[in-house]
Structures
1.
Amino acid sequence: MSRITFHNVRIKTVATGVPAFFEFVLPAHVRKVVGILALHTIGMENTIGLLPASNARLGWMHIEFNNRGASLGNFDVYRNEEDATYDYQETSVEVDKGKLVTGFYYHEAEVVSLPAGIGVLAGSFVTPGIIFSVYLKCESE
Amino acid sequence: MIEVPGYVHRQFTQRGETIDFEVVQNYRIVGDQHTYLINAANKNLFILNLTALPVGTKIISDSNVTVTEGPNVPLDRIEEYSGIIHIILPGSVAAGDVFNVLFYKVIPKR
């Protein structure tokens, strides 16, 4: 008898324009991935300046299953609102036991520095430092 | 050094795919234009000379993103791309600079 389980992976970005790669193995009881959701999870950490607007597109993600044998393609990642609810995008990927799930998140949004005189040095380097999560809805044994 | 054809064939065998056609292709990139686009839909391109590109070059494809680090990377570093590939040269590249990008192009059997 199958049951639904949820798994997630969190990735922290380093800087805009630098991909953050991830790699993990799903537990052996997972048979099929039936839903996926890519979300910006934790706010802009240690940032100065103006943050992207709510629901702004922050970047995109690529994910592959079964040791790169099954590609799910790319997903846009948005800055979420606290009270928003999201649906999983339906997928149907048969997962082979013990095989890798690989992919990366590419952060594109810039954090705009405020001009000097508003408490921030003009032109100072700003690290996005955001954490985004991939949630997988799985069918398990 | 990694033996490239052997490595590529092992990759596809491990994914349960077979190769229909393979060829080594050279793309000439000139600094006059900073963004290049290669259509590699339904193909897999393995870059063979990543060190030849200037520091800060971005290669953005559907399945992989690389920011080059010039000669600081191992000579036999191989990266795989597929889908639409954008090669974006850094602003420091002057007009007239020429770079040759060597790809091992593979078309899998569908």
2.
Amino acid sequence: MLSKIFEALYLKVLVNIIVKRATIVVYVELHSKKGAIDNVNAEFETITPNEKMIDFINSYVKESPYYYISILDYASIQGALPTCDKHRIPYYTDLSDSEYKCYNNSWIYYTSKTQLYEIEKTYKSIGIDFIFSPFVILADFFKDKIIGKIALYALVQEGYVSIAVFQQGELLYAEHLDMQANTEVEDILLTNDLSDDIDLDIDDGGIDLENIDVEDEGTELEDFGNIEDLDSMEDIDEFDDSKDVEEELLESVDTLEESTEGSFNEDYQRFSLIQTSISHYYKDERYKSQFLENMYIADAVGVSSDLKKYLEEEMFLNVYIRHTELDAEVCELAKEELGLL
Amino acid sequence: MKYSYIKPRKKTPFTPDVQLIVTFFSITIIMLLSTYAFLLFKDYSFVQNRRELISSRLDLEKSIEKMDDKIAYIKRQKALAEKIFTQNMVLKDSIENLFDLVPERITLSRAELLKNGLILYGITPSKDVYNFMLQAPLRSIFQKTYTSFYSQKNGWLRFVSTNYINEDEGEELDSED
């Protein structure tokens, strides 16, 4: 009772931390009983909390004993599964070394325990109160959309893409894609491939067309070949008509950034990861795969129009991009946790 | 904990700064209250002492009055005792004088000292010896003197002399007692 009175007297300070590729964004919102009264954000050129960042956080934290520090989970090993049944989980993956939570008794999101402890250890100096999964952010951000028809949803962060397929609020498939890890793998593969090619060229004195593996390229087409919905052009026209008018209007207002060389590479990488993941979704029998018609992207980095173009042209998706501020979204979740909404 | 992987740390309004301030104010308030309580106790104690002193003063005053009365009574007793002593001394002297008055020829067999008189029993060779040698001094002391004679075989006389002083003087002595 006494603590409730004190809680009502003090401001609530919500500190939200987003770890990017080379920087950390700290968003602070001061919340009174009437609502948010002030907010401030700052970006620090570090990936682990340095003295400047700790001082910045402490300057706000000391204003009230009721402060809550939230962070968006940046673990590379994380994801979501389309079940809340403990006995069904091993059917999809082994979560013995993962921490998981059930979302609305419908699906679970998980993360590596080791990486969770690592985050807590890294931020030991200021302490962490909440760690949120990007999948929760995604579900929360598109809560008006996921209850509808089947669609692909993606949360694009710097270095990560979290994708999920929802149908009427039910998760069908999800994957957390680490661009950094993928880049490293691709670099290794590319290096190996190049050396192999050079060897071949030297040995054979020319390109042997018979050695070119065309099956890999064909698989993508095969993925779509089994879908009955693509059998007639009429259906495709129907898809065009069923485009989300509301999202189209939103998009027309938003100006997509001009593609630069850097963002082009990154967007292509994102596209590539999404394509591979969706291919995996269609192939894997464990998931209820259905043809994806629409895709909604929560853009936290400012993707170029190229990504949309790739997705639309290569995967025949109607792509809608909504800009999002991750720090504010994390703050919203923290408010939900504290019952401030 | 709806969405977060971890539980938030328990928040308390008692930060080290608040704890310091609360401790400081608590000590100050405790000291003020204890001082106030001490003063209240002292005040109560003083009032009690005052009441006790007033009551003891009243008791002392009463006892002083009693003692004054006793002193006055003792003074009166002393005065009376002195008077009696003086009288006794006078009486003693009188008796001594009386026995000195008795001549050698008269023998006293018995003497009774009364409150206001003297009865003498004795033997005298003759009435004349008695009248001249004993009755005369007795008359000078006692206002009333009565003598009876009884003759003996040997010719001597046995006498009983009853002597009284004035009754007024006797009553005066009684009232003083």
